[in-house]
Amino acid sequence: MISTNQFRNGSHIDVEGTVFKILEFQHVKPGKGGAFVRTRLRRASDGAVIDRTFRAGEKFRPVRTEVRRMQFLYDDGSEAHFMDSETYEQLTFPEGALSDALRWMKESDEVDVLYIDDAPADLQLPSAIDLSVAETQPGVRGDTASGGGTKPAVLETGARINVPLFIDVGDVVRVDTRTGEYVSRA
């Protein structure tokens, strides 16, 4: 059993038969009354994020997690198809469960698939990924010298982000996959 004092960001717990990933937690010791733990949890089944408070010392069933390397094959509009890099076994995910991660993935990209209790549950993307700019407006002469400002751009995967004015079509940019923001040129 896992106690609330063993919580770690990114670990998984079973709360009343539902598996959650701990996004963040905070131990709170008020001046009056018992201590408690305030958490932000993501439900593994559908990705919904909830806030939940537990009493200090409350116990939960630990969840066995495993990461397997897979190759993203294609997205057919309703499902995303992956192939295990070692066994060549194919796997499909409903597109709705992965819509945020699919924004950053190209066909044949390698990703880590998280298995929870031997069932595929989620994708783990790197924190930053390099993608080329497919379309953007040209920077207006004089705007780039001031160094400020952004403009919208469409990346090769179809994702839309804001980039600095000096970025042109064909440039490769590094994007933070957690926030969807431009980081730097690659």
**Termini distance?**
44 Å
Helix residue percentage: under 10%
Can you list the strand order of the major beta sheet?
Answer: 1-6-2-3-4-5
What Rg is obtained from the alpha carbons, in whole angstroms?
21 Å
SS class: mainly beta
Main sheet attributes: strand count, strand direction, barrel closure: 6 strands, antiparallel
> Per CATH, which architecture of the largest domain?
Roll
Mean pLDDT: 83
Count of discrete structural domains? 3
Total count of strands: 16
What count of helical segments does DSSP give? 2
Topology:
Elements: E1 2-3, E2 12-15, E3 18-28, E4 36-43, E5 49-55, E6 59-62, E7 65-75, E8 79-84, E9 90-94, H1 99-102, E10 110-116, E11 119-124, E12 128-136, H2 143-146, E13 150-155, E14 160-164, E15 172-176, E16 181-185
Antiparallel strand pairs: 1-6, 2-3, 2-6, 3-4, 4-5, 7-8, 7-10, 8-9, 10-11, 12-13, 12-15, 13-14, 15-16
Features of this protein?
OB fold (Dihydrolipoamide Acetyltransferase, E2P); mainly beta; flat; 2 helices; single chain; SH3 type barrels; 4% helix; 16 strands; 186 residues
Task: Please explain how this structure is put together.
This protein is mostly beta strands and 186 residues long. The protein is 4% helix and 54% strand. It contains two helices and 16 strands. The termini are far apart.
Put the structure in a nutshell:
4% of the residues lie in helices and 54% in strands. The chain is mainly β. The chain has a 6-stranded antiparallel sheet, with no helix packed on it. Strands 9-8-7-10-11 form a 5-stranded antiparallel sheet, with no helix packed on it.
